[in-house]
Amino acid sequence: MVSSTNLSISFFCPYSYFIRMTTTFDEEELRKGICSEVDYPYMQAAGTCSSQLCTPVPGSKVVNHVEVIPRKNNALKEALKKQPVTSAMVASDPLFQFYKQGIYQVEDCGRVTKQMGGLGCNLLYAGQDTCLPDINHGVLVVGYGKDESAATELKTFFKVKNSWGSSWGEGGYFRLARYEEDKTDPMDNWGECAILSLMSFPIME
Fold first, then answer.
1. Can you give the pTM of this predicted structure?
2. Which of 6, 64, 65, 162 is catalytic?
3. Has 137 been annotated as catalytic?
4. 64, 65, 136, 137: which is the annotated catalytic residue?
5. Which of 43, 21, 165 lies closest to 99, judged by CA?
């Protein structure tokens, strides 16, 4: 999943993006497999899906999917030991749009801005004690690590693949600050830029 339709500004999908992220794997389970990028390239434009015109890649049929426990850094780390993980995040900061390199860390990025019961408050999980952060972008988390030479105080990171082309960031990827301990503030414990808010990965055959 790399894009959404009806973009209101050049880079970001509307807030309802998180609903589509929760249903994409369900939709893929009804198909025979996923097209290769060669057969079905990303066009960065609105249009009509035509995936039936391609030959599915062997081993790409989605038969189920796993939802990773939200707000837990270690849960994402453990999932990454199996395979890459799709995730939503907050990507509206101009610093992120023009990211070039290094570990991306911005104060309050991903902090909850809505009040429970208020306008625009979205709930997704049972027993959720705060609104969801203002997630507006989907990415693929591919790994994690530590960079002792990083200029930031925090040296640990998640490596994430973006969908804005190889000329953006570090060859199309970026490194997002990763905390060894989960934060205790429920308004601010969704991970850097809310990367821990909505995570899942498919089971394929």
1. 0.84
2. 162
3. yes
4. 137
5. 165
